[in-house]
What we know:
2 copies of one chain form a homodimer.
Chain A: H1 13-31, E1 36-37, H2 39-46, H3 50-58, E2 70-71, H4 72-83, E3 89-94, H5 98-105, H6 107-111, E4 114-121, E5 130-131, E6 134-138, H7 142-148, E7 153-156, H8 160-172, E8 177-180, E9 193-196, H9 199-212
Parallel strand pairs in A: 3-4, 3-7, 4-6, 7-8, 8-9
Antiparallel strand pairs in A: 1-2, 5-6
The complex binds nicotinamide-adenine-dinucleotide (2 copies).
The structure holds a DNA duplex.
Amino acid sequence: xxxxxxxxxxxxxxxxxxxxxxxxxxxxxxxxxxxxxxxxxxxxxxxxxxxxxxxxxxxxxxxxxxxxxxxxxxxxxxxxxxxxxxxxxxxxxxxxxxxxxxxxxxxxxxxxxxxxxxxxxxxxxxxxxxxxxxxxxxxxxxxxxxxxxxxxxxxxxxxxxxxxxxxxxxxxxxxxxxxxxxxxxxxxxxxxxxxxxxxxxxxxxxxxxxxxxxxxxx
Amino acid sequence: xxxxxxxxxxxxxxxxxxxxxxxxxxxxxxxxxxxxxxxxxxxxxxxxxxxxxxxxxxxxxxxxxxxxxxxxxxxxxxxxxxxxxxxxxxxxxxxxxxxxxxxxxxxxxxxxxxxxxxxxxxxxxxxxxxxxxxxxxxxxxxxxxxxxxxxxxxxxxxxxxxxxxxxxxxxxxxxxxxxxxxxxxxxxxxxxxxxxxxxxxxxxxxxxxxxxxxxxxx
DNA sequence: CGGCCCATGTGAATACTTTCACAATAAAGA
DNA sequence: TCTTTATTGTGAAAGTATTCACATGGGCCG
Lengths: 218, 218
Ligand SMILES: NC(=O)c1ccc[n+]([C@@H]2O[C@H](COP(=O)([O-])OP(=O)(O)OC[C@H]3O[C@@H](n4cnc5c(N)ncnc54)[C@H](O)[C@@H]3O)[C@@H](O)[C@H]2O)c1
Ligand SMILES: NC(=O)c1ccc[n+]([C@@H]2O[C@H](COP(=O)([O-])OP(=O)(O)OC[C@H]3O[C@@H](n4cnc5c(N)ncnc54)[C@H](O)[C@@H]3O)[C@@H](O)[C@H]2O)c1
């Protein structure tokens, strides 16, 4: 019997990220009609250890069969439930510039159930224009439109200088989950979940490793 | 005396990422003409603990003055050296679609010393066209052009299905650092540094937290 | 239907990261 | 010059995450 709805299971960030990896791997395996997969093979594909895979899954229950492995479709379905991706999420994009447009054009999000229903900007030339089937709304109508459209997540693609201001408005409108692309440290109340993508940080990470890598064996 | 060039100092991924945060914070402080900053204040700005800040910096030397704090400009300069961003890095973008174009248009990378010198595609309609002052090159000329232009990092913005193939070519051309945007697990030799940005994973993380958050106090 | 095989599930051990707590010490003011 | 004050730098402690290692038990073959 799966031991769900227990006390305060504290799941680590790394475990959640790995669940995303497992989910992606299982989706591929399902397409290939593979019926079961062992922790060993799943670990190999994602460059992890078999124990790591089993431990991660064990936080949520016992999904495998000893001697056999995990049933691909069933495990995929269970992870979808855990991640909350067995449903549709309505999303609003704020800022339809370079990165905002690229994200709106990206059809994969929609396939995964992340539906961009609204896009906002404050540029009069953009408001009212058609972006991949979506009419750009005026940022001033945001609070009302977010509520009317049952938006639960917001993606922020505005200049860093206005990002905190916009976040405050988004929070005031009752949104609890924000994905931010502006390279700035944003402040939100504790009940609002904020994740930031920072591409410069990744480039700096590469810069660090290239700069500090062990010199090639002499 | 700073204890650099010691044995096998193993710096953790989290420490390196925080160095990026400190660097960004120090750049802002420098603009505001602030001369010194304490670990306490730096920690407050980046939502960390003062001990964390001091410990991170202590891996690389002693940069502060007891009773006073750290000299802003000097510390910024030292972190730039540690991260390897006190210089210019030549970058090639592969794939000039939605996301590739957005990144090429982004002027901040250039300001930080990450210079996109070449862009590649395999679409005949795109090859030869002008993208923000850069002529799109034919992917078939990649190995030669990467070498001729002293490219040291490659950003990958091609469809997932061709990503492994392109990575193999990039590795064969001698590149040791790759930033990948395709949502797929790429395999590279151990001396090649690969980082991946996965936006779906961040959305799934938000989905997880919204789904599993403690219910509002009753 | 009995026994062997194999991979799970999980406590315990290990490894890694963060925080604590305080001695050391530079600056500033008396 | 001496005292006070503030903040660093760092071992040691506490807290997390990962890996080990093996008992457990379902599947399958004979
Ligand atoms: N383009 C990239 O590749 C890239 C990479 C990393 C980070 N970023 C970050 O993403 C953000 C957007 O970058 P971009 O290149 O798309 O910039 P951009 O200037 O092309 O787009 C920003 C958009 O936000 C809109 N905007 C400005 N103020 C607004 C407001 N108050 N309300 C609503 N909309 C407003 C602008 O009209 C514009 O359409 C920036 O913070 C940038 O630093 C971009
Ligand atoms: N657009 C987004 O917002 C977004 C978000 C997350 C991830 N991604 C990922 O980034 C990658 C690119 O996405 P996109 O939306 O820009 O796709 P896109 O189709 O707009 O662009 C891909 C580009 O790569 C080029 N290309 C294809 N095969 C090539 C080859 N063999 N050699 C050189 N160039 C080749 C295409 O001609 C095209 O210009 C994809 O892997 C996608 O999953 C995109």
